[in-house]
Structures are given as structure tokens and as C-alpha cells.
Amino acid sequence: MKYILWRQPERSRIMRKGKAVVFEAKNKIAVREITLRPMEKNQMLTETLYTFVSPGTELRVLHGFYGAEGRYPVVPGYSVVARITEVGAEVRGFRVGDLVSCRNPVPFADVDSMWGGQASLHAYVAEGEDRPVLLPENCDPFDYVIAEVSSISLRGVESAIPRPGEKALVVGQGLIGAFSAEFLKMYGCAVTVCDIDDRRLAEARERGVSAVVDLKDPDAENRLKTIGNGGFDIVVESSGSTPGFQTSSRMIRRSSLNPSPDCREPVRFSREDWPRLVLQANYVADVSLNPFSFFEGEGVIVLTPFDRSVEDRQKVVELLRSGRVSGAAYTRNCFTPEEMPEVYGKLDCKEILSAVCRWK
Question: Which range of residues forms the domain containing residue 114?
């Protein structure tokens, strides 16, 4: 008689199934089943509690940009708050039950990802810049749902080394611009914002910025220069548009140093006084501009920040924990996964600025 030894499959090799928001084709959205790849030893599994929509990125994917048109169907999104349900044998520092803020999960087995956050469960690698960030013990995870998106803005703002009392202008009040204004206020800057959308401007007023300017006003740039006394110490361009970039370039403060061309000190002596232009947007079309049409020779620092790091993400978690910043103004609109196809339409027509999906 032959005996066959049967072994129960390892839990890590199980193909788990969940549901996700899927962009089936250009401007076509569905909520359907997805399958995770078997978990590797250096990975952890999570159940999603909340996801936060990044409208600029996700809507551009929906409309076929960033190479999406050749990749549909795809799961969009990169901002997740989750609970760890299983850890691989080689994972260190994370435990089952931990609450985490997450970005860029492991790709799914049966559908492409850009970047795959809008789903009910994920696998994450426990090392590297895409590893989850721990949330405080016994916290309300809903309070941290803005952490991933807002940390992009924090990195841009900190690259400019803002100082208390400086005048700052944020061009564009989508989420990246709105969060940039929040962090500039936190650093003690007098923050002016501008946009062409009335609803976004009204919400900026509610959040307590120093001044709001409607770029549809024919006199808008003169108004901005009046507020900034001729220009701003820090200009954050977050509109992602050619008009926004051009407005930003014209709002930079001109240095008052070395007024005479016959008396110029070495450039290293004056550099700390230079105004800063932070390019905090992605552009789907090229911007053609002669820099010498608005930069008067030397005297401006142009910053193009990289994507957020683990440290940036941890900083935002601590700022939220300590109450120095709050996500309350951005988490008013909470929806179920089944409502998300309609939600993207509301975001696209700017009926709402932000949206949270509740998965549990």
C-alpha cells in the first residue's frame, strides 16, 4: 500500500482575493474583484481601513495620461491607512495588528497597478522607501488618512527653508497646493493663495490663509504684487499648468541687494537672501518659457523636490499626532467603495476638493 504525505499549503502561498476600484478603460470606472500574489517572506499583508484620493494623479490616470492608456485596466491610488494582518518570516519591526500609513503596494496578480492603493487588501515590502510607516498606538486611523499625500507638500515646503515672517504665495489650490499652504502657515509665513476655481478659493478662506486672489480677475497679478509688496519670498507652483507657471515666475520677489551694476559682491555673499520658486506640480504638457524674461540674472533659487521619503512621511504622522496640523478640512467627504465611480466625477468637475474611501 502506498501512502501519500499531504501537507497543508503555507498561509503565505495563498492567493487572497479582495475588491478594488479599477479604471477599466479611459474614463471608465468599476469596482471588482482582484487577487493578491502569494506573500513573500519579506512582505506583510494588510487590510485597508481608509484610502485617500490624490485627485491630480488619479484623474490624470483616468484620462489616459502617465502612460495609462496603454495599461488599462489599472488600480489607481497610492494613499492607504491599513492594519497589518500577517507578516512574513523575514519581516522585522512590524507586528500583526499595527496600524500603518502605506504607499505603493506590491502589484496584484490579475490586474495592473498605477499605483494600486484603491483596494481592500494589499501586500507591502517591509524595507525601502515604499515600506509602511507606523501610526501611534491606539490612535484613530482616520486622523492619518492625509499623511501620504500631504507629505509630498511637506517635502516641497521644507526644501525652501521657510522662515517666520516671510511672504509666501501658493499658485493652485488642489490638494498639493492646499497642503503646501498649511505647512507654510505652520512655519510662520504669511500665506497668499490663488486659483481660478471659486469653490477652492472659498475653502482656502475657511482654512485661514492670509489672503486669497481669484486669477480670473483681470487685475489679479497687480493685486498679488500689492499683497506681496512687489513679490514673494517663496512661490510654490502647484497648478501644473502653463498659465500657473507663468504667474508664479512673475510673482517672485526681486532681490534688493546690489542695486548698482558697478558694485557687485561675490554671489556667495547674497545667496541666503534669494527668493525661492518651488515647482511642486506635474505637467502633462511642456512649458516653453525664456527664464531671462523673468529672472533678472542672478538671485532666484529654483527647487524641484523629489517624491517624499520615509522620513517625510514620518514627520507628517508626528505633526498630525501632536496637533500641529489637522486633516479635518480634507476628510469631510467619506464614501464607500461602491460610490467611488461617482466620486471621481465629483472630483473631476471640482464639486468636491477631496475624498476618503472607507473600506472597513
Answer: 12-145+331-358
